[in-house]
C-alpha cells in the first residue's frame, strides 16, 4: 500500500522503519514525529504485521500518523519515489557514503524539501539496525554524537532526535521558543538610582552605615550588588514594596491595623515619593 | 540519600525527576543520559518508591546510572547544592523566569559547567509536569520547539533531547560525528580528464558520436554529467574499471577465460595506460 499522500508535495521527510520488531516502538516513533510536525510513516515488512493495536496504543494522540502509515514488502519499494534518503547508523560502514551529524542532516533535508525534493530517513531493526546493502540504497549516512562507550539509542529515540532536528531546521532562529519570558530589559538608571535613594535613606536612618568612614565603600557594595542583578522595572517595583514593608511596619504594628505606617502623611519623604509613582506595590 | 558524588566536581547537569510515576520511564531516562555522557540522576519522591526493578530493567546497560541515583523527599533538598537549575515545561507560566530553547540551554549549562558551577535540569510528573512553585525554585525555563497542536513529549523524551543538547554543546563543532566518511575531495582535473579521454575513445570507436556535427555537444554533455558528480579518485578508479570491462570484454568472451581482452598487448592505448596506473581495478 503506497503512502496515501504520494501525489501531494511532501511536507517533510518520510520516516521509514525497516523491519521494525515491536509495535510499541512504531507507536513511539509516530508520537515523536507528531511532536515535531512530521506525518509520513513508512513501514518495511514489520515483523508482527500491520495494522498493530500495540502501535496505535503507544502512539497515543498520534494515531493519525499510524492510520496513514504506508506498508511495503521491501526497502526499494519504500523509497522508490524519493529523491534523497538518509540512513541512520551507529557504526562506521566501509563504504563511500558521506556521514553527517543530525544538525547537518536536518538542514540538508530542509534545503531539499524547499527545493521540492522528496526525502526520507531510514531506521533499522531494534537489534541489528540496517544491513550494509540497505545503507547502500541510501544517499548519505546520519549518525548521532553518542558516547561511543555507551551507544544504545533505540529507533524511537533516533526518530525523536531526527524529528527534532527537522523541526529546528525550519525555525528562523534556533533559539525560538513556543512562548517567551516577559520583557526583562534592565530598568533605567533613573529608576534604579531611585531605589538606591529610598533604600539608603532607610538604612541610614537605622545606623547601618557605621562607622562613617566605611559608608562610601558600603554604599558602593550595595549598589554594585543591586546593579549586577540587572533588575527590570517590574522587579524594582517588587523590591520597593519589600523595602517599604520593612521600613514602615513592624511585627508589633503590621500593615492594615491602623499602625502609623499606614498613614501616608507619616511616610519618610522618599517613601512618599515612591508610593505616589507606584501603581502596584507588593 | 545524597548523590554519592557530591564531593567531586560535577561532569554535567544533574537530571532531576520530580515525583516520577513509572519505573520504566526512570529507566529510559537513565538510558538517554548514558548515551550522551550524563550520569547524575536524582529522584524526588518517586511514586513507586526506590529501588525499582522496572527502572533497572528499562535502563538496560545504563544500570550504573540507576545504581548511583540519589533519592530525595522534596525538591528543595534535591537542588540544595546546585548553583543553577533549569525547569522543563511545555506551557507558559505567569512568572519572571527567562525562557530558553534546548540549544541555548545546552550551551548555558556547558558554560556554567566550565566555570565550575553545579547545574541541574528538572523534569515533572508524567501527567502534570511541574507545579508553578516547583518552577519557581528554578532559575530559568527550558521548553522544546514542539508543534503546539501536538505537544506531548514524555519525560524520557524530554530528558533525551536535553542530554543530546548537552553532548552537542561540548563538541568543538556541532557537525562532528563519531566516525566520518572517507576523504571525498574531487579528483584532480588531470585524473578526471584522463577518464574522459579513455571513455570518449571507447565510445568513438563504437560510433557513439554520430552524426559528427553533434559530437561537440555530446562530449560537452558527457563531461558535464561526469564533472558535476564530483567524483573522488577512488570513485574514478571504480568507473575506469567499469568502462574497461565494457570496453574489453563481452558476454560471449568475458574476462578470465583467455579472451583477447585479457591480453594487455591487445588493449587500446588509452586503456593500457590506465591499466598501468591502476592498483585495483574493479
From TrEMBL, chains A, B:
What keywords tag this UniProt record? Cytoplasm, Methyltransferase, S-adenosyl-L-methionine, Transferase, tRNA processing
For this UniProt entry, what is the primary localization, expressed as one broad class?
cytoplasm
Q: Does the keyword Transferase apply?
A: yes
* Coiled-coil regions, chain positions: none
Disordered: annotated span: 249-282
Matching Pfam families, A to Z? Answer: SpoU_methylase
Q: One GO CC annotation, please?
A: cytosol
Q: Which CDD domains match?
A: SpoU-like_TrmJ (cd18093)
SUPFAM superfamilies reported in the protein's UniProt record: alpha/beta knot
Give the originating organism: Mesorhizobium muleiense
Q: What protein name is recorded for this chain?
A: tRNA (cytidine/uridine-2'-O-)-methyltransferase TrmJ
GO molecular-function terms, A-Z: RNA binding; tRNA (cytidine(32)-2'-O)-methyltransferase activity; tRNA (cytidine(32)/uridine(32)-2'-O)-methyltransferase activity
EC annotation from Swiss-Prot or TrEMBL: 2.1.1.200
UniProt-listed GO biological process terms? tRNA nucleoside ribose methylation
Q: Which residue numbers delimit the tRNA/rRNA methyltransferase SpoU type domain?
A: 14-164
Amino acid at each position: 500500500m503506497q503512502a496515501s499522500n504520494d501525489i501531494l508535495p511532501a511536507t517533510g521527510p518520510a520516516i521509514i522503519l525497516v523491519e521494525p520488531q515491536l509495535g510499541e516502538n512504531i507507536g513511539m516513533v509516530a508520537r515523536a514525529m507528531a511532536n515535531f510536525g512530521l506525518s509520513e510513516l513508512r513501514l518495511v515488512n514489520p515483523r508482527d504485521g500491520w495494522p498493530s493495536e500495540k502501535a496505535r496504543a503507544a502512539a497515543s494522540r498520534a494515531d493519525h500518523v499510524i492510520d496513514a502509515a504506508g506498508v511495503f514488502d521491501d526497502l526499494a519499494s519504500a523509497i522508490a519515489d524519493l529523491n534523497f534518503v538518509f540512513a541512520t547508523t551507529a557504526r562506521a560502514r566501509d563504504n563511500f557514503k558521506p556521514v553527517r551529524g543530525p544538525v547537518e542532516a536536518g538542514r540538508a533535508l530542509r534545503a531539499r524539501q524547499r527545493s521540492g525534493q522528496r526525502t526520507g530517513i531510514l531506521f533499522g531493526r531494534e537489534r541489528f539496525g540496517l544491513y550494509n546493502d540497505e545503507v547502500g540504497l541510501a544517499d548519505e549516512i546520519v549518525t548521532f554524537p553518542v558516547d561511543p562507550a555507551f551507544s544504545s539509542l533505540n529507533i524511537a529515540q533516533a526518530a525523536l532526535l531526527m524529528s527534532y532536528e527537522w523541526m529546528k531546521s525550519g525555525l528562523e532562529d534556533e533559539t525560538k521558543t513556543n512562548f517567551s519570558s516577559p520583557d526583562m530589559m534592565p530598568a533605567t538608571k533613573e529608576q534604579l538610582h531611585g531605589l538606591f535613594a529610598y533604600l539608603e535613606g532607610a538604612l541610614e536612618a537605622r545606623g547601618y552605615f557605621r562607622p562613617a568612614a566605611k559608608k562610601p565603600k558600603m554604599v558602593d557594595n550595595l549598589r554594585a550588588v543591586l546593579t549586577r542583578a540587572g533588575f527590570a522595572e517590574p522587579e524594582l517595583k517588587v523590591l520597593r514594596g519589600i523595602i517599604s514593608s520593612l521600613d514602615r511596619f513592624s511585627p508589633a504594628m503590621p500593615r492594615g491595623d491602623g499602625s502609623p505606617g499606614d498613614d501616608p502623611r507619616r511616610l519618610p519623604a522618599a517613601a512618599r515619593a515612591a508610593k505616589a509613582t507606584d501603581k502596584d506595590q507588593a
